[in-house]
Amino acid sequence: MRRIVALSGGIGGARFLRGLRRAAPEADITVIGNTGDDIHLFGLKVCPDLDTVMYTLGGGIHEEQGWGRAGETFAVKEELAAYGVGPEWFGLGDRDFATHIVRTQMLAAGYPLSAVTEALCRRWEPGVRLLPMTDDRVETHVLTDDGDGGRKAIHFQEYWVRLRAEVPAHAIVPVGAEQAKPAPGVLEAIGAADVVLFPPSNPVVSIGTILAVPGMREAIADAGVPVVGLSPVIGGAPVRGMADKVLAAVGVEPTAAAVARHYGSGLLDGWLVDTVDADAVGAVEEDGIRCRAVPLLMTDLDATTEMARAALALAGEVVNP
Amino acid sequence: MRRIVALSGGIGGARFLRGLRRAAPEADITVIGNTGDDIHLFGLKVCPDLDTVMYTLGGGIHEEQGWGRAGETFAVKEELAAYGVGPEWFGLGDRDFATHIVRTQMLAAGYPLSAVTEALCRRWEPGVRLLPMTDDRVETHVLTDDGDGGRKAIHFQEYWVRLRAEVPAHAIVPVGAEQAKPAPGVLEAIGAADVVLFPPSNPVVSIGTILAVPGMREAIADAGVPVVGLSPVIGGAPVRGMADKVLAAVGVEPTAAAVARHYGSGLLDGWLVDTVDADAVGAVEEDGIRCRAVPLLMTDLDATTEMARAALALAGEVVNP
Question: Which domain holds residue B166?
Fold first, then answer.
């Protein structure tokens, strides 16, 4: 399995990738990052998921928090607040600001996001090839109540960060996805892959958004290589964040088996569930997806590396059953 | 002298204005700020002179340095350098960055610089009305040697900050000035003024650039009110910076009398020189400009306040000789 493609959201995906890199040190890993969470703040282009992957694999991440920079300070944000300029609910630190300033300057100069991401990664040397899912603008919106009997769409970050997913989510809409094209290199990487992995990222707003880019799902399904995912749901609840809220919005139960069924056997060949969900293995396999139960808590790098090894082993089983 | 208009560059002008505000607490002071030093850095619009006035009068200035913010940190700049993104020779701190981010965002949203400056001043409450000389782009360039026998134009900031004025300056060119219009409110303020002051700012690249905006010089000359300046040259050398270098570029000797003659009696009614230049008073008066010798070192706020009082007193003398 020399050529690995992994789809990734933010924190969960990034941590998994760190284990994957250790589990397969000789592999050529291409990461297709979600950009549906991207947001313009203070006139700057912020790509939370790409940055989380870049900082995590590049050794610059705030470890406990899982996002943002280690040793971060907040002078710029405090000053912006003093000018009455918000939003204050999005935590941009000074070091992080520099990334967005460089990115915005390059985009304004005409470089596509994929070229900008490559340039930023030249500093961080993440040890993987990080590609945005698309160079086009896709923005995940959440359909919620407008407080007046009707509904309104808000930016995913407003729903997730400001409102902490505590308002009803009736639908998740990746605005612009239908018109988006996969970024340069994305379809080529999938076509040349020996295995495609779905880390335990959010199946709706992370992996789901990547799969919403036209051509992406088909390229993965048609690649003729094992596609293996890891459940982000353990024991009936998401490991991190509030994934159950957005699963409900798309009518999926927060169980490891239901998430596998949501991806579907047309896409997924193998699925890892946590040992506490071992009784789900039978149901998943009945759906035509090979399934194993292994520990899925990314408590440390060793545990995460074992998860990656198990995913690659399951991919091997799919090829040579 | 209820309505005062003052033209201003950066450090020297800003410090004088602090004294002026104290000398005339009841006055309605309009400051016309130089924008020829403005520069785009990291995709952001930086207005050094406007900010120095705003920070100085608003209590946010780095007192010893004379520019930039007090209690400044440099995380953003360090990070930009880590990305290999410069220039490194321009000292933008984290707090300062916030100002440029807000400004750039407002400009991108379509607000003219005058409206942006007003918005920024809502926070700083400088106690004066701060207007940019123009909302149009004017950029002071310095014609220097190209090292190959020819000449080349460089941005004033590159000449001043990076090269510390240590290369030959053959000409100072306010690029774009000919097409610029005074910002809204500028001509009205001059027309309604009881006195116009030229603080001890650089006569070439600060006051000179403001006067290069078409209509500005005429409005001041035609206002029919006293125009009084303070010499930035004391004892044959500029008090601050490297003003002698740019004076030489326009063929003006670095003396208090020569600077007065450079402005000319068509514009200037009164001129303050330092006590060490008392022997220049006669020559200046022979040029038709009323002249007094008073201490002109802005050693502290009291000394600066006395300078402002002397300027206003000289304006009174011009009106009632």
Answer: 139-178
